[in-house]
């Protein structure tokens, strides 16, 4: 068995705009999390059809199905009343974001937090936004080249599709005046990072240095 847990998140700036000329400090924010995990056990349809066809519409249809799988597997949580320098602790044992029957050889995690007063889109709407993005055609073409050369096509496709989905979701939040709080992109492998099935890290900074995260892996 293998378990991946998030234990704590610290947010320095909640991105909520000041009111009353800052006299009362920052307002409380609603923070939303999206978490995507990819391993060699990620469930995706057979990629052979994608590689063997030259039909652009067929390629898009296959990618659409994979995007739906990626979005459906997300973990979504909303935390209210978040202030600057807020520390979120997920109990005394952490919260499991991913588990599998076997210890994965490859492990890729992407985590995004944003402040929002808007109602989150449902899965179907989010998928459509990704498919209608003006960079989707270019992404589809590049994915074919990358997957064809990859040692593990399913894992590579999972990682790249997740990255693209997060990129589009980030644009959506900005368009809706939702403020990006932080984004973490992390790749691990068993031999280098958790040879004995365990890893625990605290205060891992995200790409913006606005968010610190504690996480742990445990496998047996």
Describe the structure.
This protein has 220 residues and is α+β, with helices and mostly antiparallel strands. The protein has one domain (2-219). Helix content is 33%, strand content 35%. The protein contains 6 helices and 9 strands, in the order ββααββββαααβαββ. The strands form 2 sheets. Strands 1, 4, 5, 8 and 9 form a 5-stranded antiparallel β-sheet that branches. Strands 3-2-6-7 form a 4-stranded antiparallel β-sheet. A hairpin with a 5-residue loop joins β8 and β9. The longest helix is centred in the C-terminal third of the chain and has 23 residues, at 153-175. The chain is globular. The N and C termini lie close together (5 Å). The model has no long low-confidence stretch (mean pLDDT 84).
Topology of this protein?
Elements: E1 2-11, E2 29-39, H1 48-52, H2 56-72, E3 75-82, E4 86-89, E5 95-100, E6 106-115, H3 123-131, H4 136-149, H5 153-175, E7 179-189, H6 190-193, E8 198-205, E9 211-219
Antiparallel strand pairs: 1-4, 1-5, 1-9, 2-3, 2-6, 6-7, 8-9
Distance between the termini: 5 Å
* Residue runs with pLDDT of under 50 for 5 or more positions: none
Whole-number mean pLDDT: 84
Percent of residues in beta strands: 35-45%
The class by helix and strand makeup works out as: alpha+beta
Q: What's the helix count?
A: 6
Number of separate structural domains: 1
């Amino acid at each position: 068995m293998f378990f991946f847990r998030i234990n704590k998140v610290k947010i320095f700036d909640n991105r909520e705009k000041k009111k009353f000329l800052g006299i009362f400090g920052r307002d409380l924010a609603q923070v939303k999390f999206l978490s995507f995990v990819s391993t060699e056990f990620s469930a995706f349809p057979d990629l052979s059809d994608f590689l063997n066809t030259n039909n652009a519409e067929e390629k898009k249809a296959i990618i659409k199905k994979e995007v739906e799988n990626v979005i459906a597997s997300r973990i979504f949580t909303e935390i209210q009343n978040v202030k600057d320098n807020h520390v979120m602790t997920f109990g005394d044992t952490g919260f499991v974001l991913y588990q599998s029957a076997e210890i994965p050889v490859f492990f890729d995690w992407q985590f995004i937090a944003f402040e929002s007063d808007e109602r989150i889109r449902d899965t179907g709407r989010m998928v459509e936004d990704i498919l209608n993005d003006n960079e989707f055609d270019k992404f589809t073409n590049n994915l074919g080249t990358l997957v064809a050369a990859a040692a593990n096509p399913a894992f590579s496709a999972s990682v790249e599709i997740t990255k693209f989905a997060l990129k589009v979701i980030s644009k959506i939040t900005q368009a809706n005046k939702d403020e990006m709080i932080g984004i973490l992109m992390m790749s691990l492998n068993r031999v280098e990072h958790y040879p004995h099935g365990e890893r625990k890290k605290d205060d891992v900074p995200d790409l913006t240095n606005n968010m610190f995260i504690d996480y742990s892996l445990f496998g047996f």
